[in-house]
Amino acid sequence: MRIRTLLTWLLLFLGATWVIKNNIVQIPDNVQQTFRNGVSRVTTNLNSILDSNWNFNQNKTSTKKDVSDDATPVESIVKNKNLSNKYYYSYQAGTPDAVQNVFKRAIATYNATGIVKIVPGAEQGWLNHLELGTYRKNVPLNQSRTIELGIGGPKIMEQTGVVSRIANHASAKLNIYYNKAVSQAVATHEVGHALGLDHSQAEDSVMYPLDREQTALSPADLAGLKSIYGETK
Ligand SMILES: [Zn+2]
Asked: Given 42, 80, 125, 198, which residue has the most CB atoms within 10 angstroms?
């Protein structure tokens, strides 16, 4: 009698465990789905413009200071270089029209400053050039709560000696894995990097590392550009 009761309880217990286990096995599909949506919503809210320069600069700018009145920082490799303010630009093969359009608007913004002059043209020799295009990169959400929308930066070639010359063969790319990367603000930010601007902690700067849909250059951004390319040449 006792043993039977014990067996009954044991069976009940095992049965309950099996049901619970089964639930645990069955529910996760929904749970994971919900979780995934939740995380991606948070990620979208963070609206990151994160690019490779971001982590790098986070480490670099350990001494925080109020930068709101200062010029937007410039990348160290373009500092005190006698770079021409004239640039040629071309698109990587297969760059979608929508991407070309946002880059065109970004370029118009920089040209309107009179500080740089960016015109269509292939990469050649010691002339400054911007290569514009796209890439696809999915940053796993469990590794980062931010999404990477673009990448851009200068590539300085320099010759010193009897004949000294310098050119910037830069690139700016939008991460078309994410639809929201195809925006004038992201293009303006990445072209800014290509021209030598670094991240700014001022929220009205196009070089603020998170996407604020900022498409107009701030006075500090203009000052940063002038520090690289001088006044109107
Ligand atoms: Zn950036």
From this structure: 198
Q: How far is the CA of 189 from the centre of ligand 1 (A)?
A: 6
Ligand 1 geometric centre to CA of 104 (Å): 19
Can you tell me the distance from the alpha carbon of 172 to that of 107, in angstroms, rounded to the nearest whole number? 11
pLDDT digits (tens, 9 = 90+) for 149-187: 999 999 999 998 888 899 999 999 999 999 999 999 999
Residue 124, token pair as written in the block: 């050649």
Cα(65) to centroid of ligand 1, in Å?
19
**What is the rounded CA–CA span in Å between residue 168 and residue 87?**
9
Beta strand ranges found along 127-232 (DSSP E) = 128-135, 150-153, 156-159, 165-175
Residue 91's contacts (CB-CB under 8 Å, 6 or more residues apart) are: 99, 100, 103, 131, 132, 133
